Each structure stands twice: as C-alpha cells, then as structure tokens.
Amino acid sequence: xxxxxxxxxxxxxxxxxxxxxxxxxxDDDAIYEGMLIDYTVSPLFGxxxxxxxxxxxxDYLVSFTDFQEKGPYKLWHHRxxxxxxxxxxxxxxTVYYELPFGFLGTIVHVLLVKNKVKSIFDYRHQVLxxxxxxxx
Length: 136
Hints:
The protein is an alpha+beta fold and 136 residues long. It contains one helix and six strands. It has one helix at residues 102-133, and strands spanning 20-21, 36-41, 49-59, 63-70, 75-85, 88-98. The longest helix has 32 residues, at 102-133.
C-alpha cells in the first residue's frame, strides 16, 4: 500500500516545502506502531526545521495515526483513514494541531499557518487524484 511507506510522503508534499525524509527506510518498509520518522521541512520562508513523528496507531489498510514527538508545533496529531465506498476508497485526514507561543502563535496561525496547512492537503488531494483516479 502506497501510504504504508514513509518514503512516499515526499511524493505528495509540495516541492516548495523542502520536505525530506531523513530516516533511512527502504521503499518496502511498512509503518508500524512505535516507528519514528525524522524529516526536515521548510514550511515558511524557506527556513528548514527538523520534525519527528511517531506512528502511534496502525490498523493495516484501515487507518494509522502519527503524532509529533519533536518539531514546529506544540501539538500535531494526524489520523489517516481509508474508507471503502462504492467508488473505491476514500482517504480521510483528520488533523489536530496547535502552535506554540500562545497569543502570538494564534496570530501566526491566522496570518500564515492555517492557509499553508490547507494548501498542503489540497496539493495532496490533487496528486493522489492524478495518481490513483486518472483514466488512461
């Protein structure tokens, strides 16, 4: 399954994010509960940030959840669900996140981060549609 490999994350992340998986996984290494994944990402102004997530839940072909261990957010909890339906499979992302720095973080969220996060998931939707739903 495409989503089981951490190496595929870069394929569905906008190039301007400078997203790189630092952990040395093989393409056929599947995620598992407890897996730590290290990245660098440049979400704003090209400034590279280190980020580490931990896979905290896996139900193969149904769902998995990653949680930020270290990184730019005060909280990052991301659940991926794969829901069978009459057209195939719907991928559903549920993200809970919070920025650090209290009121200042709230301002940065409104001005920059909210739209950036939305654009990342919009991009992923477009790429996945092209990869899995385009007709030959």
